[in-house]
Write a structure and sequence with these properties.
By secondary structure, this protein is of the alpha+beta class. The protein contains two helices and 20 strands.
Length: 261
């Protein structure tokens, strides 16, 4: 059987997964805090028909060999944590991280998860929570009677309470990772730590290389529609090219089968 049939099939499978990834990026173009995903490929094993450097019958060393590849594999996907667009909401509980870092979220399983989506709400107990009701960690609770909330760049959350001259304050902290691309996406705009990401470093916003907080803004998706559409067209054409390779191999086999003495 011709290798090209299987080789081209691996190309079609790889491009299918690439288009799946691009489609997910486009679907999340308006998702707060979403980070686009890149795809990476690797070539498969080669059949070595002749090794380079071997000597021929005359004793001359051949400068090149003969290797035939067996296609491509979908090797990895990687999140790109470049800064997304600044979107002003003017909501006092909305926050944007300008620079590195993640908000820490207490999940229902009691484990800390991480997010770049800073669209927070106040629940019935006064806690700042995500759209799914998960509280921010360390817990930030809005006192009863609060008239105004101010969040500084270094994460100090101040509450102006009716009848009190001095505001009540709480400190927000962020987490950063040496390899954020190693975080695992678990949906709901959340990530969880993995051995590849390394352990989190927790610090106040603006401390060292940690990003600062911008109140009244949220971070938009970093997906560039034009770039993704170009990638989508490129992936479609690559898929069609691999399909054409299969058709060509099939035509060659049909010719070979039809040979007569």
């Amino acid at each position: 059987m011709m290798r090209s049939l299987y080789t081209a099939a691996t190309g079609m499978d790889a491009q299918t997964k690439r288009i799946d990834t691009i489609s997910n990026n486009l679907a999340n173009v308006n998702t707060t805090g979403y980070k686009k995903t890149l795809t990476e490929f690797e070539d498969l094993v080669y059949a070595t028909l002749r090794s380079s450097g071997t000597a021929d019958t005359q004793g001359n060393r051949l400068p090149t060999g003969i290797q035939v590849g067996h296609g491509v594999k979908f090797a990895a996907t990687e999140k790109v944590f470049s800064q997304g667009n600044f979107e002003q909401t003017e909501k006092q509980t909305d926050m944007l991280i300008e620079g590195r870092g993640f908000f820490q979220i207490m999940d229902t399983d009691g484990q800390i998860k991480y997010t770049r989506a800073g669209s927070f709400k106040v629940d019935d107990t006064g806690r700042l929570v995500t759209n799914d009701g998960l509280p921010i960690e360390p817990q930030i609770t809005v006192p009863d009677g609060t008239e105004d909330i101010t969040i500084s760049k270094d994460g100090v959350v101040s509450f102006k309470i009716a009848g009190q001259n001095n505001p009540s304050e709480m400190q927000l902290t962020l987490a950063r990772f040496i390899n954020p691309a190693g975080l695992k996406s678990i949906g709901d705009s959340l990530y969880e730590e993995t051995p590849a990401s390394g352990a989190p470093t927790v610090a106040n916003p603006g401390d060292g290389s940690m990003g600062s907080i911008l109140q009244g803004f949220v971070e938009g998706s970093n997906v560039q529609i034009v770039e993704e559409m170009v990638n989508l067209i490129e992936g479609q054409r690559a898929y069609e090219s691999n399909s054409k390779s299969i058709q060509t191999a099939d035509s060659m086999l049909q010719t070979a089968v039809g040979l007569k003495r």
